[in-house]
Each structure stands twice: as C-alpha cells, then as structure tokens.
Amino acid sequence: MHDIERFIDGFQSFQRRHFEDQSSPERKTHEAASPTTLVIGCCDARVEPATLLGCDPGEIFNIRDMANLVPSYGGSNGHQGVPAALQFAVTQLKVKRIIVLGHSGCGGIRAIMDGQFSSAGGTDFLGRWANIADPAKYGVRQKLGSADRAEQYRACELAAILVSLKNLESFPWIAERMAQGELTLHGWYFDMEAGALLAYTPGSDTFEPLVGPLAAQPA
Predict the structure, then answer these.
(1) Beta bridge pairs of residue 208
(2) Quick check: pTM over 0.85?
(3) Tell me: domain 33-214, CATH 3.40.1050.10, correct?
C-alpha cells in the first residue's frame, strides 16, 4: 500500500475511534484550543510530542524544528517562525509552562557537531539555524574534545536544550511572565535507546530521570 493510502486509512481509523463518540475530546477541538503547555520539540519523525506524552488533540501547543532549537531574542531577525509561535503561545494562549524536549540520536545535533552546516550566509537556512547551537557545540568540544563521538553527540544534545532554555529567557514577554510566577521553563530529554525521560535539574546542573527505563522499574 502506498503511503498516501496508508495515511487516508489511518485517518479513517482515527475518525472511527474518536469521532463516533459525540462527547470525545476530539469532537470539541474545533471550538477552541486552550492548552496550558507549550512543547518545543525536534522535527525528527520518531519524536512526536503528543504521542510521547499521551496527549489528546488540543492538550499541548507544539513548535517543532531542527534539533529543538530556540533562537535568542536579539538574534531572531532571521528566524521569525519560532519566535512568532512562541509569542502566540505566551501572550495569546497564556501557556503556563514551556518544555524544551530534546532526544537521543538527534540527526541535527550530529550534523552540527560534525560541521556539516558550515556556511551561514545567503540562502543557507540550515547553516544559519545551526549557528544557534554554537555555544553547545563549542562547549562540548572544549570539555570533551578527547571523548568518543557518541559521548560528544549526547553531551551536545543535552547542552543544546540548555541553550534553548537560556534563549527563551531573553524574550521580554517570557521573562515578564516568569518574574510574575505565571510561566515556568523545563528541559526534558527523551532517551530513545533506554526508553527513559530525563529532566534538567538546575540545582545540580544535571539531567535526572523523570521516568526510568522499564527494566529499572519495579514489577
């Protein structure tokens, strides 16, 4: 079966599963979406936030881009799409939390670490976007220059989440709502190999398990 036919069959299955019940959440999504959480995730097809977090349509507001990066406020002139979606979520939807969701095996981070996007001028959109992760890339090279590539890739995946969190704080309407206690920022990391979810803990400056691997959980 061709992909397009699979997608049509998939929608029909979704339709039967969720729309036959007149009271289902999906029946009400056309009225108004009022999510309280914004998730900034990678556009990697394996990392779909609503699927990972078990959310129904309308429960979370999504921004997805290469390597779940967020540009800084001062450097966002060439990256209007993400800041526009951010501003909508924060000032219009009034979300209460923003989660930057990174993941292991990120092809974008791997390419950034390997220098595949070296040019950043003209119409090289990849190069310009990859530059957002420069602090993470150079920090890993400085601290783990002699480590194997797999360790460097993982370290950069984690460090890039922190870059995005720092950049989020540079937006005035985010900083204002944080100062008022109306908005919190979170850095999460999906370990695809282990099937675990980690969260950044500022106090220890480390990523700690939110949900450990199944093998490590009590039966």
Answers:
(1) 199
(2) yes
(3) yes
- Give, in degrees to the nearest 5, the angle at Cα 126 between 192 and 104: 10
CA atoms of 76 and 84, how far apart (whole Å): 10
Q: How many CB atoms lie within 10 A of CB 76?
A: 19
Residue at 31: amino acid letter: E
Question: Which of 42, 95, 101 has its CA nearest to residue 87?
Answer: 95
Segments of the chain assigned to CATH 3.40.1050.10? 33-214
169-213 tens-digit pLDDT? 999 999 999 999 999 999 999 999 999 999 999 999 999 999 999
> Strand 196-201 vs strand 206-211: parallel, antiparallel, or unpaired?
antiparallel
Dist CA 20 CA 15 (whole Å): 7
- Cα(first)–Cα(last) distance of the chain, in Å? 40
pLDDT in tens, 54-103: 998 889 999 999 999 999 998 656 668 999 999 999 999 999 999 999 99
